[in-house]
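User:
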Amino acid sequence: MKNYFCVNKNIKKMIQNKRCFDLSNYLVDFLKTNEPNDTLRRRLTADIEDTRKQISEQLISFDIDLNELNDNYKTLVTLKQRSGDLEAQLKTYADSHLMADIDDLNDMCHQSNDRMVRCKRLTHFVTQFREMYSELNSIDQSFGVNSYEMSVQHMANARQLYRQLIQEIDTNDDLKGTAKELRQFLSGVKNELTLKREELIYNTKQLFNSNVKAFKDVANDEYVFEFNLINYLKSNDYKNFINSFIEIPEYEIILKHLIKTLNEYFVKNIVEEKVNQLSLEDNKIIATKSKPDGSSSSVLPLSLLKTFFDYLNQLLTDKNEIREGRQLLKLLGQHWTEDILNQILNYYLRRLMPKTESEIKQYLTLIDAAEDIRCYLQDIGFIDENNMDSPFVEFALNIGYHFSRKLCTDFLIEAKTIISRDLHQTVEVGTCETTTSDGNHFPVCRVSQLVVELKQLVEDIHQFSIRCSEHCCQSLLQTIADIVELFIDMSPIYHKKLITEFPQQNAIFHNNCLYLANFIETLPSNSSALPLLDPYRPILRQLGSQVFLKQMKSQEKIILDLVQSQQFAHCVNDLATEDTKSALGDQLAKEFRRILNQCLVHLNFLKNALIDVLPEKVYHKAIGTLVNSLFNELIHKITIQNDISSSGASRLSTEIEFLLKEIQLFLDTENPMRLVSKWSKLTEMKFILNASLVDIVNRWADGCGILAVEFSAQDVKQLIRVLFQNTERRAQALNRITSK
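Assistant: Predicted structure:
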């Protein structure tokens, strides 16, 4: 490298020397001399030769320096290559050895940091253990001096430390080896904490319940609220107890039990005017029951209620000397305010709701008195001062709505009470058809006393609505409709057992429905209630008819079960084929007569149950339908016989004659055919059983006779075939029985 810089220096010097030789200046100086030409020529030649030699020497020197420069450049390239190799070797060494050492050093640093963190966590874990034991010892010390507030605080701290220790065991890997033992140990600590907590709750509850209680003094006939906490505890201990009491979650259960007894013995009795005197004696509030003839003013209960809360405030705060007592008062308010306001509304204000709209203005003074109590409770801290919602203000603003609602509710309750009465207490209603000039008469029958009272209630409500404001009038008219709907929905369910099991009760219910429907039908056309009630008229008629029809079907089934039984069918069959008057025939006749008598007994039972209850037309139609079913089944049983002997026909005719006489006596009418449509048909059946072929043909009269009215040609032919033997005369008779 040194030689390289020397060569460069010589080159630069040579160039500088070359630049110092100025030919133009040399010639000027040479020509200015006065020397002879030969001398000048020799001098010039000598100078030229010297200059040439210098240049040659410099060129030679330059060639030597250039070669040295080339050699130095080659050396430089070689050194640079060696430097690159050394750098690569150094890098390789650094990558393989130095980085490994650095990684090891980093690992050692991380391990050192981890050890420090783990040591700190273990140190913190041990510290928490010590703190927890300290808190446990503090709990015992607090128990010893009855410091309830400190006990609660130390217990909360211990529980928090316990949770932190459990969490540390779950997350700290260094503790995994001893996690099981630590958990078992902490489980014992948790059990100890639970026992101490239960002990604290029990002691607090016992202390509170033994010194704060409401009860009824039966001996003196009075209600007592006793608050001995301040007397039992010192002033500071009382403050301490209150502060600890509100920290216990179970305090709500204790307070709710106290509130329940205070509601029962004081608030409810005051607003219902069952007590008329309160007194504050030492640490007791005493309420005396009202006398039966006590005449207290309408505002007195609310004034008395305000006095009660004033006494309560004095007891809990030691006449405003203990500020912590207001915390207990506030807790009572949080759980009791809603009950108090609701009881004033429901058991006092709603109970004294006026009966007429003209009394509402005077009634508002009661609402003002109730609002005054709410404001007083807010002033003493019983109600949160930020709670501006007042149910009494809302009640006063909507007094018209509440008045009409209370009025309508009372009417509905009265209607429900009426509907719940017995059906069998009946009265006779209706008029004879001949005594009325219009078509809207109601036939004579018996209805329940309850439906007459219900009708009177509806009429009273309708008359009352005429004197009310428009809004109240509409509400009352809707109430009338609701009463009718209540009867439709409630009465069949409430009296279901009686209606289902007893025909007379069923008939009474049927009459009740028709009576209400007739009442709606006879309302004046200009009545404001008619548009609301008219849709219920067909519903009432349908309800009464369906219930009664269902009962009649069940009664019909009882009768048909007798005559459709296998026993009756065998009797008819054997009786029809019996040829001689034998003992067997007599026995069959008795069995046949017994079944008919059972039917007659049941019909007579229905007659006695219904004849004085149902309208005459309805009764006759119902009984006639049942008798028709009996007659129709008997005719069917005879018609389907394959053979009837002459003696059998005589016996069947005798039984039919007996049945007709009994039914005529049962119906108590001279013209039974008007009530029983099958009367003629059974009479004609009796005729056929006793008649000859000629009589039957004559009575048929080519399809124009009486017999043709009741029987078809096919039925008559069948009867002829089973009654008469196959002869020429029977064939001729059959040929003459043709349809017209």
